[in-house]
Amino acid sequence: MMSLHGRFILTSLIAVSICLAAAAIALVQIFADSYSSRIQNELTGHINRLAAVIRFSADGRTQVSANPEGDRFLLPYGGLYWQIDDPFKTDVLRSPSLFDYALLLPVEPHPVGAMHQYRLPGPEGKDVLVQERVLLLAAPEGKRPLRIAVAINADEVDGARTAFALDILPYLGILAVLLVLMSIGQLWVGLRPLDHLGRDLEAVRNRKAIGLTGSYPREVKPLVDRLNALLESQAVAIEKARGRASDLAHGLKTPLTVLANNALTLRERGEIEIADELDHLTETMLSHVEHELARARISPTPEQRSGDADVQKIVGETIRMLQHTEAGERLIWETDLEKGVMVPIDPHDFREIAGNLLENASKWANSRVFVTAAYRGDQCRLVIEDDGPGVSTEQLPELPGRRVRLDRLKPGSGLGLAIVSEIADLYSLTLILENRSEGGFHAEIVCPDATSSAET
């Protein structure tokens, strides 16, 4: 679908084109009318001057004592002509410019003194604009009506109209560009609040703000208020849902603990088979509870995260905590964590990722754990390696599955990598689990769209 900017610009182009086309037609018509009026006035002047030089001979024939002013009347087919028709004597007098051509004036009678205009075929196949007037002049035998016509080539008027239209086209084009640019300027100013709204929503989406706090025009303010109310109610609803899920899971843990104690009591009484069955059920249910507890803590969507995660801070804190555990105290931790790297993951969710991967490494390592976090090409790569026994090739594909425990003698529920896999899917992260060529295990998480504030 076309954007608002595109629609507005397209509408502006259409409106400006229509308006300027109408203006061009109006201007050309006004010019043509003005030019025609001037030509008519000139032709009327020629008729009046012709009337002033008409004479009658002794035998009553019409004569012109002198040509009207203008060399074009003398030049054959010069474009300006006059003709006098004498119906009484059936004489026709013509200007030298008509040469051997006679204008075919309409035969219908005209009132004396009235001016008439029409378009007729002229010399050389060109149309002429004719202005004619019937005058009563004093002849020897009395008043005699004469038809006096003056004509001009029509292509002079048509050419002037066309030339004027072509002359104003560049100016209309410049005016069109200016009007469109002004419309785009108005659009830019008018839609700035919507651009501001979009940036604020993007800040909310990136968890850099919890609501729309900018200053908006009164036309946009109701929309902003409703969006803020929606964001607030959504946050409250999510928090309540996560809280209820957590409360439910915690509420189930206590009865399950009692059930595990009962199984121990039965085992002491010799009811080994029933005790084993209860232990199995208890372990399964506890695994479900632990998994749901972990899921309740995960952000529902990347857009609803509470903020971005500081990789160095979270990984460093997790390592320091593990160094005080029984498994971590015996290990050598080698770290290379780049400063200032931020990933668009909820800090709690990233802590789950780092915690589970680091805990697995400390659990299986023989003596060393290697941890690196680097920012390269808008990506953050967190790599955790250990020098432990690694994983068999057959078991590698099963690692991200739920409750997969490779060794039941090791502590844990088998949920760690499953939780990491779920978080990776939620945030579109790349999870790499493989054995090291030199022995041990390699776990890597690739976070796209990372940012770094560290100096390069």
Short key terms for the protein model shown above:
456 residues, 8 helices, Beta-Lactamase, alpha+beta, Heat Shock Protein 90, rod-shaped, single chain
Order of helices and strands: HEEEEEEEHHHEHHEEHEEHEEE
Q: In the CATH scheme, what's the topology name of the largest domain? A: Beta-Lactamase
Count of individual beta strands: 15
Total of DSSP H or I helical runs spanning 4+ residues: 8
Overall mean pLDDT: 82
Q: Name the poorly predicted regions.
A: 402-413
Q: What fraction, in percent, of the residue positions are helical?
A: 40-55%
What proportion of the residues form beta strands (DSSP E)?
15-25%
Distance between the termini: 41 Å
For the record, the CATH architecture of the largest domain stands as 2-Layer Sandwich
General description of the model:
By secondary structure, the protein is α+β, with helices and mostly antiparallel strands. It folds into three domains: 6-159, Beta-Lactamase; 231-297; 304-452, Histidine kinase-like ATPase, C-terminal domain (Heat Shock Protein 90, 2-Layer Sandwich). It has helices spanning 4-53, 154-205, 221-268, 272-297, 311-322, 326-329, 347-364, 416-426, and strands at residues 54-56, 62-64, 80-86, 91-94, 115-121, 127-139, 142-153, 309-310, 332-337, 341-343, 368-376, 379-386, 430-435, 441-448, 451-452. Strand 1 (54-56) and strand 2 (62-64) form a beta hairpin. Helix 1 (4-53) runs antiparallel to helix 2 and helix 3 (221-268) packs antiparallel against helix 4 (272-297).
